[in-house]
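Request from the bench team (R.T.):
"We need a structural guess for the complex before ordering more adenosine-5'-triphosphate. Sequence and SMILES attached. Just send the tokens back."

Command: build protein-adenosine-5'-triphosphate structure.
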Amino acid sequence: MRVMLPSRPEPRVATRHWVALSAAVVTIAAAPFVLPSYPLALLTLALAYGLFAFGLDLSWGRAGVVSIGHAAFFGIGAYGVAIAGHNDVPQIVGALAALIISALVALVVGRIGVGPKALASTMAVITLALTLLAEQGARSWLGLTNGSNGIFVPSSGAVTNFYVTGILVFVIVVAIWLLLLRGRFGRRALAVRLNEHRTEHLGVSPMRTKLTAFVLSALVATAAGAIAAPVMGLVSPGVLGIVMSTQVLVWVAVGGKGTIFGVFFGAGVVTIGQQYLGDAIGAWYLLVLGVVFILVVKFAPTGLVGILSRFLRRDVGRAASQGAVIGAKEAPDVPGHIAHKSADAIRITDVQKSFGSVPIINGVDLTVARGEIVCLIGPNGAGKTTLLNLIAGDLAVTSGRIEVLGGDVTRWAPHRRARLGLGRLFQVPSLYPDLTPGQNMAFARAEAFRAVDLPEELDRFSAMDDVLASDLSLADQRSLELAMAIAWGPEVVLLDEPAAGLSHEDSLQLASLMRRINAQLGCTLLVVEHDMDIVRELADRVVVLANGRVLTVGTMDEVAAHDDVRTAYLGAV
Ligand SMILES: Nc1ncnc2c1ncn2[C@@H]1O[C@H](COP(=O)(O)OP(=O)(O)OP(=O)(O)O)[C@@H](O)[C@H]1O
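Reply to R.T.: structure attached below.
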């Protein structure tokens, strides 16, 4: 099925990039003809460092995956070329071998660092361990690396050759990146960095996106190391180590994460600064570097280029989109949820959930038919939100079975469940707060699998590009979350207290809107709600949950008349 693509013009970031890139290429193409060997070698080294910083930024600046030990990959590239040269093997063979090794290491490290069981800090810790291990390994493996003495890289040609190779690799890498940035990958990396949870519930795997970013980033760092090795002349364990890893973090942070020119600018400014500072204050420059890093992270998290661009750009959404095209240009992925034949949208069988030894959901059986609106009510702490989390995959069941649209999803990750056509709204609206409402909508539509004609009160957000989503009122943020979820084209939507914080009148309007969404778009709705007027207005059936068990199921009047319900819940209303 075709997706209605947003017609809103995208920021013309690519044109600017291409023009600036061409100007830069022309300028540096003239360098070999005007510069003597030494400055040309320095320029090549600066280019390699810039590329190294750019590599780290692919992971950290774009997908939010911080690597504390990226020099390990830079060093693998440098050692690959050095070891090959030392053993009379063509350096290009050493570079290619290094790329393969780096890809494998990055896959393993990345899988652990951003895998399902990873904490936010796991990646930082494991990459720190990697750089420490790599440096120590290079010191100890005398036969291969010549230990702390390092390996002299035999000079295989004039400096001009290194320079031209560096420029070629640089142009290829940046061109590939610009193409990726403006496609599906760039859009998803941005979305994952801005709100991983929301992105997951729009059917995108955060792990796959982050892992791809990390492996690409490792490959670029390796290529940078391979370019740098012949110019450095001596490759020693320091190139893999923690000091080098820290320096590249500073380059990226000072220049500005997520901006191509920022990272090259940062690499240039800090490298040149280091030359002068290093001469003047010796090893103390590392201390200065550390202080600069802390100050930048604390007071200027967008770096120098981020500060500049805030003054230059008036379009509020452009800064956050970082050149990514948020509306899809490519044909959409079409998940297979349309093919499901089950008459049930949701079927839960004997589901139990305990937190530690405390049982919260105690053997729930529940069926929601396709096209139904079911309201889930119950006293505070009954387990309603927990049940929605179990259905959506945010929590794993302790035992039991969950089916969505006929598929057994009990062990599935949230993004796989979403791709069956399962939408999710949260008690606290989950949006891309740094993007405009129009960009939020464009992202949901870019990931959609069917075209949806939204009701006017929801479609108004599509053209709202003069504020950020975070600036909207709570009521509008709730509506925007609903608009995104529906524009995405789900068959089943889980809503957690959608009317919380709304006035009585607004709540009833919301109930009427949800009825229309159900009738006109055929969406099945499972709604957790406390407001009994809304429940009465909305529900085809009401399920009452108390102490993690289904107490009764029926119409609002039936459950209201039920003695146990009156005792457990309604009696208190
Ligand atoms: N991650 C968790 N770890 C430990 N206990 C939890 C966790 N999540 C929920 N609980 C507990 O499970 C119980 C049910 O919580 P839940 O949020 O599902 O209730 P609810 O019916 O949605 O309540 P409310 O109407 O107040 O939102 C509560 O006692 C809560 O403290």
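Two things stood out. The chain has two domains: 39-241, 344-570. Residues 1-12 have pLDDT under 50 and may be disordered.
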